[in-house]
Write a structure and sequence with these properties.
The structure holds 2 protein chains of 2 kinds.
Chain A (H helix, E strand, L loop, with lengths): L1 H23 L5 H6 L10 E5 L5 E6 L3 E7 L4 E5 L5 E8 L2 E8 L18 E7 L5 E6 L4 E4 L2 E3 L4 E4 L3 E5 L4 E4 L1 E3 L2 E5 L4 E4 L2 E2 L2 E6 L4 E7 L2 E5 L5 E8 L1 E8 L2 E8 L2 E8 L2 E7 L2 E8 L2 E5 L5 E7 L4 E3 L2 E2 L3 E3 L5 E9 L2 E5 L2
Parallel strand pairs in A: 2-6, 2-8, 3-7, 3-9, 8-12, 9-13, 11-14, 12-15, 13-16, 14-17, 15-18, 16-19, 18-20, 19-21, 20-22, 21-23, 22-24, 23-25, 24-26, 25-27, 26-32, 27-33, 28-32, 29-33
Antiparallel strand pairs in A: 1-4, 4-7, 5-6, 10-11, 28-31, 29-30
Chain B lengths: L1 H13 L4 H20 L4 H6 L3 H15 L5 H16 L4 H42 L4 H48 L1
Helix pairs in contact in B: 1-2, 4-5, 4-7, 5-6, 5-7, 6-7
């Protein structure tokens, strides 16, 4: 180890000397910055225009962010930068526009330390507002943004879209201000944000590590599958809500669930604040359960904790509490943790 | 007779322990035998009551809990012998699983560091090829090689210190397992 340490110290000194000699000999200083910058490998932006109306957009890219926005123009516009190793294919067939980007496999050539600006790594798609498209968007390393708009500020009607399926392996996904029949979002190690969405049928959101955030949205059924991240829901109006996660906390605020809300966690806290439902099924193996209701009247409780306590409106009920009357059913269970049922002031 | 017995015990102990550990154990048994002899027991009976292999097994947790594990050789020996020691404890299954997970984790970390260093050298060679083929001035090539060497050596140094940190952590956790084994074996 000592030998290796000396070798690296020696190489460090040699490296510094070589840089000094290079600079003294008239080395182009911009070479230093270009060592850390791959921008030169990208050319000018490439534009593609699709004037004929399509009804389905399929994007499958390897190392790109996907940025979808809407405009009043009559044609779809793509803007992207192509790396020398990129292979792009754009094809329109029977109303389906397919865009793919793959990368050449290179082993020994072209290595560098490169960093690239986000702009160069983004595929921008500008879609006419009037086109109602199905979206199948996938990127291996990058974020996906699908940013709609309110078409009419008075009626609050959102931009219309067909079904939406978005998938990113290691990036964030954000969808905003869109009305769609169904929405499916999946990412492994990124966050998911769903804001101001109107979904006629189902929303399915899946991630492994990251935050899932819902806000100001409407849907029939919402299924959220997490693994080790946080799940935040605020002002959501749905028929049913199902949350299943391993480790993390679930916080739901100011929401309306017409039938049932089911939250299952292995380790983490469950918090419901001003959330109405007919049936609550809340279960965590390790963590507290906290529910804030408008009133305790008409609520039937089945509460159970193995090693904690149950507090209803500040009164200790021991580790088991069951009541038999009331049309609203609230079942909560925790292995190690407390259950708090509070009434909102 | 007792000297012969102690010599045989020494031979058995030397198969498993370091010389200073062997001497400590021999001193302990010599003292214990003397005590029992003083209390009226016959030396033949005392020596017959001991099994040398059993002594090795019984002393293993005690010796491991005292071993400093400073050298790589000591760490490897302790790692191997802890399996035997854990198998004799009352918590052999949970402790064994925990110990296995620990060993696998440490091996994975060590492998990752090694892979990083190899990858680093590989990257440097590839970069060298690229640079050699590049149509730039010789001073540019010198300067760029210097940058690559600085990056290579700095990353290499970080890896070495990380490796040392991991070794220290490994030593501390080995000592912790040795203490647990001793406690649960009593």
């Amino acid at each position: 180890m000592k030998v290796l340490l000396r070798v690296f110290v020696f190489l460090l000194i040699v490296g510094v000397i070589l840089i000094g000699v290079g600079i003294a000999g008239g080395m182009d200083a911009s070479r230093i910055t270009s060592t850390f910058n791959q921008s030169e490998a990208y050319g000018d932006p490439i534009h593609y225009t699709q004037s004929e109306i399509i009804d389905h957009l399929v994007i499958d890219v390897a190392v790109k962010h996907i940025d979808i926005s809407f405009s009043e123009s009559e044609s779809l516009k793509l803007t992207y930068y192509s790396h020398t190793d990129d292979i792009w294919e754009i094809e329109e067939n029977l109303g389906v526009l397919t865009i793919t980007q793959t990368q050449k496999m290179r082993l020994l050539i072209g290595f560098n330390f490169g960093f690239v600006s986000r702009e160069l790594l983004t595929l921008k798609v500008e879609i006419p507002q009037k086109w109602v498209l199905d979206y199948d968007l996938k990127t291996k390393t990058g974020d996906i943004k699908l940013i709609g708009m309110f078409l009419d500020p008075i009626s609050m009607s959102r931009l219309l879209a067909g079904t939406i399926n978005l998938e990113s392996d290691t990036g964030h996904i954000e969808v905003t201000n869109i009305s769609t029949p169904s929405l499916e979002l999946k990412t492994d190690t990124g966050d998911i944000a769903i804001l101001n969405m109107l979904v006629i049928e189902n929303i399915i959101a899946t991630n492994s590590t990251g935050v899932i955030h819902f806000e100001d949205s409407f849907a029939q059924e919402v299924d959220i599958f997490g693994s080790t991240g946080r799940i935040e829901v605020e002002n959501l109006h749905v028929l049913s809500l199902n949350i299943d996660s391993d480790t993390g906390q679930v916080i739901i605020k100011d929401s309306e669930v017409e039938s049932q809300i089911v939250v299952r966690l292995s380790t983490g806290r469950i918090g419901l604040f001003n959330v109405s439902a007919i049936t609550y099924e809340l279960k965590t193996n390790t963590g507290d359960v906290e529910v804030e209701l408008l009133s305790l009247l008409d609520t039937r409780f089945d509460l159970n904790t193995n090693t904690g306590k149950i507090m209803i409106d500040g009164i200790n009920q021991g580790d088991r509490h069951v009541t038999t009357t009331g049309s609203i059913s609230l079942n909560a269970e925790t292995g190690t943790g407390n259950i708090y049922i509070n009434v909102r002031d | 007779m007792m000297q012969k017995w102690l010599e045989e015990l020494r031979i058995e102990l030397e198969k498993h322990f370091y010389p200073d550990e062997v001497n400590d154990i021999l001193e302990y048994y010599e003292e214990m035998i003397e005590d029992r002899f003083q209390n009226g027991e016959l030396k033949e009976d005392i020596l017959a009551s001991y099994n040398k292999k059993e002594i090795v097994r019984e002393m293993m947790p005690e010796v491991l809990s005292k071993r400093s594990n400073v050298t790589q050789r000591e760490r490897l020996k302790t790692t191997k012998q802890l399996w035997t020691a854990i198998a004799q404890t009352s918590l052999k299954i949970p402790l064994g699983i925990l110990y296995t997970v620990f060993i696998i984790t440490m091996a994975a970390i060590a492998f990752s560091i090694l892979a990083s260093v190899v990858g680093l050298l590989f990257a440097f060679i590839v970069y060298g090829f690229d640079l050699f083929e590049a149509s730039i001035s010789n001073y540019d090539k010198l300067g760029m090689t210097g940058i690559a060497l600085v990056l290579l050596s700095l990353t290499g140094l970080i890896m070495i210190y990380l490796y040392r940190l991991i070794l220290e952590l490994y030593r501390k956790i080995l000592n912790m397992f040795s203490q647990w084994t001793k406690k649960k074996g009593e």
